[in-house]
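note to self: dont lose this again. the chain is below, predicted strucutre after it. 238 aa total, dont forget to put it in the shared folder this time
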Amino acid sequence: MINGYGLCLNEWLEDENIKTELRLLIKISSLTAEKGFCYASNSFFAEYFKTSEVTISKQIKKLESLNYIEIEYERRGAEVLKRFVRLKKTLTDDYQKLKPTIKENFKDNNTSINNTSINKEKDKKEILFSQLIKQYDHYDIYENIALDFIAYRKQIKKPLKTILPIKQFMDSLIELSKLGYSFDYCIEQMKSNEWQTVKKDYIHKPKPQQKSRAESNRDFIREHYGMNEDNIIDTEII
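---
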C-alpha cells in the first residue's frame, strides 16, 4: 500500500463476499495495528480510495454485517461525536504490534538532495508529528484527524510544509468544541467551503449586541430633531 502496509488474513483473500471491500478492510487493519482501533472517517477513506462517502458507508456496513469489523460510537445526545472501528478478528500479537507507516504526506520541495538527506528529513517530520499529537489527550484519536487534515490539504493543492498548521488546526477544533461545535461539524464546514483550515471566527460568529429600546429612541430623536444629549429625556416612544 502507498506510504505504508496492511496485513491481510488468508480467509479475507478467500472470501468471495468481500472482493470489493477487501482493500478497505486491509486499510482498517493498517490503521488499527498499533492501538487496536481507528477513528478514520468515511471522508478520509473516500479520499484515500478516490471514491464517494456513500460507497465507503455501504462497504463499512457490509464488513460490519459479515462480522469482520465492529463499530462503537461516542455520542452527545443524538449527535455522534466519534466513531471507533475495530477488527473483530485481529492478527497475532506480534503482527498487531507492527506500526503502520504514516505521516508521509508532507510535501518535500528539495528534490535535488540525495536519498539519505531526504530520509533524514522525513524521519524528522515523523518525529515532530508524533511529538505534536502526543500533546493531546486521546492522541490516538487526534492522529487520525490530523492525517485526514493532511490528506485534505493535498486534495485542495495546498500541501503542508511544516507542523505548525496542524497544531493551529487541532487547537481551533478544541476551542470550538468548548463553544458547542462538534469536530465533525467544523471539519465538514471547512471542506464544503474549501477553507485551508478551521478558525474560531470562521465558525463562531456571535450576533452583534443590539441597542436597548431607550438607546434607539435617543438616536432617533437626535437624528430627526437635532436635539443634543442634554435635552433628550430618557423615555420610551410608543
